[in-house]
Design a protein that fits this description.
Layout: H1 7-23, E1 36-38, E2 55-57, E3 60-62, E4 66-68, H2 79-92, E5 95-97, H3 102-106, H4 110-122, E6 127-133, H5 142-152, E7 156-161, H6 163-168, H7 179-189, E8 194-198, H8 205-213, E9 218-220, H9 229-239, H10 243-251, H11 259-269, E10 273-276, H12 282-290, E11 295-298, H13 300-308, H14 310-329, H15 336-339, E12 344-346, H16 348-362
Parallel strand pairs: 4-5, 4-11, 5-6, 6-7, 7-8, 8-9, 9-10, 10-11
Antiparallel strand pairs: 1-12, 2-3
Length: 363
């Protein structure tokens, strides 16, 4: 096991992240969804209320292809948020991930641990996935990751890639050597499926192929166009006088592969793709599925509702589901499988981006 951080360092960082997301401008544009238009079907010949939004994810039936993305955990103050999110996931039949479990693995604190364990306590039947960083796999062995699985009774484990965030953090871990091999080892030996996810900068087609070859069970692209962790860490760096990191964070605030592009490219390499990164509506989820995703994930939009309680989270999920269902209705899609075959048009900068990517491969 690695040398543990102090409880104060970990707790302060978790608190900083939540506060900055709630109080500062940490949103970027440019997901590419604005350039994706689903082709309207004027004669859908289906009943809207009979549309089936369910999907199967790792043999677990979800009522809708919506994922509450990994956000928080690791501080007693976040227990309330995770409780509300998990209750809502249980009630609506969707998936949910927890934030990085590093603190839970390395710090001996029952109140802190509860910020993670609460999710299974209140959501015994929900699809829940855990979360560890790729950089930590260089220090953990498979048994350590199994402890993270056991901590929440996880149905899957996410391994997050956040090296731009680490590069901006004054205390960041910037050694990325050997991570792919470590991911392959965990994917081969872990007791539950492994999802590899970015944290807001996207996954290119080439990287998606490397992950597919490594045997991961799903890829969550988490592309550019939503919450910017580079921007969040820039605010943190400014607060502690780390001026160079602050400037780097600002410079790379909108860095990455747009979510729509990343979804298309990853879906060419892997058949289980989750599209996240600036997904803000059920229509965005529908577009992502038409581009090849299995589901769409959201994080920040759930944060404020979680602070108000599970009923508010449920309201948001039901709104997203109705928006998705409406998009399916007007594309003639009676099921998610139908939506995956729906016609769409790519316009604007996203079209140019994809064309340039294709040209660069040919060169």
């Amino acid at each position: 096991m690695p040398e543990p951080e102090t409880e104060t360092e970990t707790s302060d960082r978790k608190d900083d992240h939540i506060r900055i997301i709630e109080e500062e401008d940490v949103e970027t544009t440019g997901t590419g969804f604005e350039d994706i238009e689903l082709v309207h079907e004027a004669l859908p010949e289906i009943h809207r209320d009979e549309i089936d939004t369910s999907i199967s994810l790792f043999d677990h039936e979800l009522a809708a292809p919506i994922v509450i993305e990994s956000m928080t955990g690791g501080h007693p103050n976040t227990t309330k948020l995770n409780r509300a999110l998990a209750i809502a996931a249980e009630e609506t039949g969707i998936a949910m991930g927890v934030g990085s479990q590093r603190a839970g693995l390395e710090l001996d604190d029952e109140a802190l641990l509860e910020s993670y364990t609460v999710v299974r306590d209140v959501a015994p039947d929900a699809f829940l996935y855990g979360n560890v960083g790729a950089a930590q796999l260089l220090e953990y062995d498979v048994n350590d990751v199994e402890r993270a699985v056991e901590m929440i009774g996880a149905d899957a484990m996410a391994i997050h890639l956040n090296f731009l965030q680490e590069a901006v953090q004054p205390e960041g871990d910037v050694d990325a050597r050997g991570c792919l091999e470590a991911i392959e080892t965990v994917a081969d030996a872990l007791s539950v499926p492994v999802i590899v996810k970015e944290t807001g900068n996207g996954i290119s087609g080439d990287t998606a192929q490397r992950l597919a070859d490594a045997g991961v069970d799903a890829i969550d692209v988490a592309g550019k166009g939503g919450t910017t962790w580079s921007g969040i860490e820039s605010y943190r760096a400014a607060a502690v006088g780390a001026n160079r990191q602050e400037q780097v964070g600002r410079l790379f605030r909108a860095w990455g592969v747009p979510t729509a592009v990343s979804t298309l490219e990853a879906a060419d390499a892997h058949d289980a793709v989750i599209a996240s990164g600036g997904v803000r509506s059920g229509l965005d989820v529908a577009k992502a599925i038409a581009l090849g995703a299995r589901a769409g994930g959201l994080a920040k939009p759930f944060l404020a509702p979680a602070g108000k309680g599970s009923e508010t989270v449920v309201d948001l999920i039901e709104q997203l589901r109705l928006e998705l269902q409406t998009a399916m209705f007007v594309t003639g899609s009676a099921s998610i499988a139908d939506l995956q075959s729906a016609e769409y048009v790519v316009l604007g900068r996203t079209k140019e981006y994809l064309e340039e990517r294709e040209s660069s491969r040919e060169r």
